[in-house]
Amino acid sequence: MKNFNFTFLIILGLLFTGCSLEEEQPFLPNENVYGSASNATSALLGIYQAMVQYEYYGNEFLFLTNVNSGLMVTRRTGNQNDNSYNSTLSSLNPTSGLVAIENSWLGIYQTIGRANDAINSLTAFDNPSTSDELVINDVIGQAYFVRAFNYFNLVRLWGEVPLRITPTTSETLHLAKSPIKDVYAQIIVDVKLAQQLMNGAVASGTPKPQAADMLLSKVYMALATASSDVQDPSLNYWQLAYDEAFKAYGAYSLLPSYDNLFLGTNGNNTAESIFELQSVVGASLDHTRAFTPNWYTTANTFGWLKINIENYDLHAVTYPNDPRLATTYVSTWVRGNNGSIENSYPTNTARSTFGNSFPYLFKLGSRDPSNAVVETNKNFKIYRYSDLLLMLSEISNELQNGQEMTYVSEVLGRVGLSPHAGYSGGQESFRAAIMKEYQFELIGEGHDWFNNRRRGYNYFLNTIIIPHNSAASFNDAVDVTHDTAETLVMSIPMSVAEINANNEISN
């Protein structure tokens, strides 16, 4: 684990809760931790710190969801395609007990544990009249938001999961998995409470109420395409999704330059940001080293995460003049340690080694070749305004409300493009186009796993798996074949640590 240089370190120690038999309970009365607005704010920052730790968005969760999305490949643990990570995560068939699975599960439940502590220890004010009361309400609202967000990640990745909504004690440690429908019901309850309580009173860098609106819209979108046993047949989920997303429409704006979103601190907390995790150099949010090409900087970065080339090729063919290409991918760079020039695909088309056969995801890596440490102070953006616009476009197409072209045109207009012919071919054609637009705009930003499976197995099979396995460029020496079995590719194996520690779960 890293050493965290956050000013609220003591608070974090008090709040550390996980989901294992070894978890520590707060050793001081809760009122001593949460007795003031400033302490409540510090506790809130502790909740978000759990999300940026190495086990979660700091590295492992992004590693798990990006590689297993079908869009990316990894060279982790070796420069070949047959090691335990490359041959399981990249094949869409991760093995039980894989470190990325175990750590992601742990990171998510640790975050939930801290949110539960805050929710349990603070009381909201019905009519807040002071700045402190507004802050405390906002903290509680954000705790509900975080808990809902994390259960949304859990239910989509693992399906039925233990539903922990109170601080964990020895009496509540062993919980059976809850049905998917019940998990979604709790998510919706939590988000609606977040919407009522979030007010923007906490300092900048934390999400505002519109983040809860966007989350609830994503939840309804997921339910709109879920199996009938999860849905409420009386609800029009697409309309509900539109109503929630539209609440945030116009509250943010697109940056004039797509590239500026990813330029270190200049891209942090911009007018386009709806929810982003704050980075502190020396803390755990060191996601950039997983994306930065090996020795792109003077520090030895990993370059673990790369793009399957059919996904790069599709973007380049669809929008050959798209400035997002240069921002998103890199295939030529000068090594920071010795000045030699490195080339990978598409600059190098030979695909002779695993290392040079794939482009790197440049936008999330370090953009400073002189950087002498593996981490940067680059925040991680979870919700951006362009994502909201694409959501509104997709939802409008499902509702056929006549607004679908409006929203996608805003996203494409930012990079000097117009909707391609696929957007004019009717509802199904538009649906196919907008699903790929998410990929072109947001690849690597934590949404690909969920978007690629949200439309169901057949969509995933026909748009991701088969195009990869049957690509003309496929090379057995460097490419990893995607599995095709529905039971393997549509979910993640449950944490072995959870199974071993929880007497109510057997598999």
Folded structure, characterized:
Helices cover 44% and strands 6% of the residues. The protein has 507 residues and is mainly alpha-helical. The chain is globular. Strand 7 (332-334) and strand 8 form a beta hairpin. The strands form five sheets. A two-stranded antiparallel ribbon has the order 1-5. A two-stranded antiparallel sheet has the order 2-3. A two-stranded antiparallel sheet has the order 4-10. It has helices at 9-15, 30-34, 37-52, 60-67, 99-121, 131-158, 180-197, 209-224, 237-248, 288-291, 309-318, 324-328, 385-399, 404-414, 427-442, 448-454, 457-469, 486-489, 496-501; strands at residues 72-74, 161-162, 177-178, 273-277, 305-307, 329-330, 332-334, 341-343, 360-361, 380-384. It is built from 19 helices and ten strands. Among the domains are: 1-205 and 456-507, Serine Threonine Protein Phosphatase 5, Tetratricopeptide repeat (Alpha Horseshoe), CATH 1.25.40.390; 290-366, no CATH class.
Cα-based radius of gyration, to the nearest Å: 22 Å
Query: At the third CATH level, what is the topology name of the domain at 1-205 and 456-507?
Result: Serine Threonine Protein Phosphatase 5, Tetratricopeptide repeat
- The largest sheet has its strands arranged as 1-5
| Count of DSSP H/I helices | 19
| Second CATH tier, the architecture of the domain at 1-205 and 456-507 | Alpha Horseshoe
Order of helices and strands: HHHHEHHEEHHHEHEHHEEEEEHHHHHHH
- Determine the oligomeric state from the structure: single chain
Helix content: 40-55%
Shape descriptor reads globular
Average pLDDT number: 89
Largest sheet: 2 strands, antiparallel
Number-wise, the strands total 10
Distance between the termini: 28 Å
The level 1 CATH classification of the domain at 1-205 and 456-507 is Mainly Alpha
Low-confidence stretches: 1-29
Percent of sequence in beta strands? 5-15%
Structural class: mainly alpha
